C-alpha cells in the first residue's frame, strides 16, 4: 500500500484509505487473537503475540499510517470549518 500524495488528500480519499487499513489490521488482530483492553496495551500485546516478523512490521506500519491519515483528516476538517466561518 502506498500513501496518498498531497494532492490526493481529501476527506473521501482519507476515509477510503482508513477503511483499507482497518480491514488489514482486523485480519492481523484475528490471526493473532489480539484483544487488548486499551490502545496503550495493543503494541505490547502485538510485540509478544505476533510471531511472524513481517506481520509485526506490517502491524506497526498500519498503526502509523492510520495515525498519519487520522491527523490529516483532522487538519482538513479544521481547515474546512475555518473556511466556512
Write the layout of secondary structure elements.
Elements: H1 11-31, H2 39-49, H3 53-84
Biggest sheet, in brief?
none
Helix-strand pattern, N to C? HHH
Silhouette? elongated
Mean pLDDT, rounded to whole units?
90
Rg of Cα set: 15 Å
What fraction of residues sit in β-strands? Answer: under 5%
Unreliably modeled segments: none
Could you tell me how far the N terminus lies from the C terminus, measured between alpha carbons in angstroms?
36 Å
**Given the helix and strand composition, which structural class is it?**
mainly alpha
**Fraction of helical residues:** over 70%
Q: How many beta-strand elements?
A: 0
Number of helices: 3
Provide a short characterization of the protein structure:
With 85 residues, this protein is mostly helical. The protein has helices at 11-31, 39-49, 53-84.
Essential attributes:
85 residues, elongated, 3 helices
Walk me through what this model shows.
With 85 residues, this protein is mostly helical. The protein is 75% helix and 0% strand. It contains three helices and no strands. The chain has helices spanning 11-31, 39-49, 53-84. Helix 1 (11-31) packs antiparallel against helix 3 (53-84). The longest helix has 32 residues, at 53-84. The radius of gyration is 15 Å and the shape is elongated. The termini are far apart. The model has no long low-confidence stretch (mean pLDDT 90).
Amino acid at each position: 500500500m502506498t500513501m496518498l500524495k498531497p494532492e490526493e488528500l481529501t476527506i473521501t480519499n482519507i476515509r477510503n484509505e482508513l477503511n483499507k487499513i482497518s480491514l488489514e489490521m482486523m485480519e492481523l488482530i484475528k490471526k493473532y487473537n489480539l484483544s487488548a483492553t486499551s490502545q496503550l496495551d495493543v503494541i505490547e500485546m502485538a510485540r509478544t503475540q505476533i510471531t511472524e516478523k513481517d506481520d509485526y512490521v506490517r502491524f506497526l506500519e498500519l498503526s502509523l499510517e492510520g495515525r498519519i491519515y487520522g491527523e490529516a483528516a483532522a487538519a482538513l476538517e479544521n481547515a474546512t470549518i475555518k473556511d466556512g466561518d
